[in-house]
Amino acid sequence: MRVLIVEDKVKMASLLRRGLRGEGMAADVTARGEDALWMAGATRYDVVVLDLMLPGIDGVETCRRLRAAGVWTPVLMLTARGALEDRVAGLDGGADDYLTKPFALLEAFMRQPGVTLSRFDLLEAAWDQAYENRSNVVDQHVSALRERIDVPFGTRSIQTIRGEGYRLREDGER
């Protein structure tokens, strides 16, 4: 499988590329929508992973132009902007699906079940250096993650360890 990653944050692009290659996929990376247009026109990709906020033309306009050029490769919009109007704009622009960052938060827990991860550990794993350590962004995203993976199943997979951080329960742990 061949994937085109359109992501202007070097760290995120590198993580995506490494993860996809680890799964046996070929992954090309570009940081600009304009470059994605010619790359997708010149190479047959199985999927395009497209950030919304890009320098030059943004992800929505990039997707619109891909569709107008007859490129019907599935597009996954991957972005930090999760508001309803952003999702609607992305899907109306031609994206096939829309995933909000930081999806790497769940990955951080899954890589170390049973280990307490501090807020700083989670910031480092899921965000770039632009976020302040004093921010409650981690708490907000852990709460949202609980809503997705615990509430529907009546479980409590992610524990709060007072004064330390959070941890994912290990298999079989109560």
Structural features, described:
The structure is a single chain. The protein is α/β, with parallel strands linked by helices. It folds into two domains: 2-100, Response regulator (Rossmann fold), CATH 3.40.50.2300; 104-168, Winged helix-like DNA-binding domain superfamily/Winged helix DNA-binding domain (Arc Repressor Mutant, subunit A, Orthogonal Bundle), CATH 1.10.10.10. It has seven helices and seven strands, in the order βαβαβαβαβαααββ. It has helices spanning 10-22, 33-42, 59-68, 84-92, 104-111, 119-126, 137-149; strands at 2-6, 26-30, 47-51, 75-79, 97-100, 158-161, 165-168. The strands form two sheets. Strands 2-1-3-4-5 form a five-stranded parallel β-sheet, with helices on both faces. It has a two-stranded antiparallel ribbon with strand order 6-7. β4 (75-79), α4 and β5 (97-100) form a beta-alpha-beta unit. The radius of gyration is 18 Å and the shape is elongated. The termini are far apart. The model has no long low-confidence stretch (mean pLDDT 88).
